[in-house]
Write a structure and sequence with these properties.
The chain contains twelve helices and 13 strands. The protein has helices at residues 53-60, 90-95, 113-123, 130-143, 160-172, 190-207, 218-224, 242-247, 252-259, 266-271, 302-306, 325-328, and strands at 6-16, 26-37, 42-46, 68-73, 76-80, 85-86, 96-99, 178-182, 210-214, 227-232, 235-241, 312-315, 318-320. It is of the alpha/beta class.
């Protein structure tokens, strides 16, 4: 048994993007990403849209077949592409679940809420009879702040926040240990976001859950995560303790993200310096050589174009991938 509950090594996820033979192109959505998560911990994954956060979460659950890399779950190999090792996923579907980003698209409009939550219970034969199934469904709905009256309604009868609660109840129905939370609050009103975040924290305490929490809102991730990983154009650029990464970011991209967090105090806001990145994010079909961030980095040198920076431990528990950390800090 390994100490790390979730262990991801050199994960790659490429998608075909046209062309034939030698000219065949691929979207390099995730390219050589590694991280670990301890049992009962929340790892936040942040970065701008299109950086590969969601693809990382889905590849771990084998909703996409990974192009490369290795993933261990509680000491058991789920996949090792190089060794052509792929576990049968059915037993692991109970242990690993996902909460999708869009509560409007992720629920079947033709099914009642009771059937949506109960579907996984049926698939894994978790209930002995109809009464036990009904009791399990109601228990899950009550855990997320809904009640038995909601079980016979359809998704279109609910608000966005309530639909997301249904999605969370569906994920919890099989009593998982690990949940990929794929931007679960980004489609919700700000007033509802705090309620859902608090609910995730309460569920984690009550059920001993482990989360990979994906979002692009750093202030939300900071609130719920023990550690935070920052992704840029398919690669991990920094990973550290939640407090450490928000107070002492060492990668230039992370520093720019942190500087963009709004500050409520006008005096502090005026005193803080916003780091504006120049240029656009390059295409993942044809990413820059060497360091992928170099085209937007003011510290970039020739070495950055020639050599990919190693993702290494700079300080205890603080990892970063940059050739010029001494200049950035």
């Amino acid at each position: 048994m390994s100490d790390d509950f979730i262990k991801v090594e050199h994960l790659k996820q490429y998608f075909p993007a046209g062309g034939f033979g030698k000219n065949k192109k691929f979207v390099q959505a995730v390219d050589d990403v590694s991280f670990t998560i301890q049992k009962g911990e929340t790892l936040g994954l942040v970065g701008e849209s299109g950086c590969g956060k969601t693809t990382t979460g889905r590849a771990l659950l084998r909703l996409y077949e990974p192009t490369g890399g290795r993933f261990e779950y509680d000491g058991e190999v789920i996949f090792d592409v190089e060794k052509k090792q792929f576990a049968n996923m059915l037993p692991y579907r109970k242990k690993m679940q996902i909460v999708f980003q869009d509560p409007y698209a992720s629920l079947d409009p033709r099914m009642t809420v009771g059937d949506i939550v109960g579907e996984a219970i049926d698939t894994h034969h978790l209930a002995a009879n109809k009464k036990e199934r009904y009791d399990m469904v109601i228990e899950m709905l009550e855990r997320v702040g809904l009640n038995s009256e909601h079980a016979n309604r359809y998704p279109h009868e609910f608000s966005g926040g309530q639909r997301q609660r249904v999605g969370i109840a569906r994920a919890l129905a099989v009593k998982p240990e690990f949940i990929v939370c794929d931007e679960p609050i980004s489609a919700l009103d700000v007033s509802i976001q705090a309620q859902v975040l608090n609910m995730f924290e309460d569920l984690q305490k009550d059920l001993g859950l482990t989360y990979l929490f994906i979002a692009h809102d750093l202030s939300a991730v900071k609130h719920i995560s023990n550690r935070i990983g920052v992704m840029y154009l398919g690669t991990m650029v920094e990973l550290a303790d939640s407090y450490e990464i928000t107070q002492h970011p060492i990668h230039p991209y992370t520093q720019s993200l942190i500087s963009a967090i709004p500050i409520a105090d006008p005096k502090l806001a005026r005193a803080s310096k916003r780091i504006i990145l120049e240029g656009d994010v390059p295409s993942p079909v044809n990413p820059p050589s060497g360091c992928r961030f170099r085209t937007r980095c003011k510290y970039a040198t020739e070495q950055c174009a020639l050599e990919k920076p190693e993702f290494k431990e700079v300080e205890p528990g603080h990892f970063a991938a940059c050739h010029n950390l001494d200049k950035c800090n």
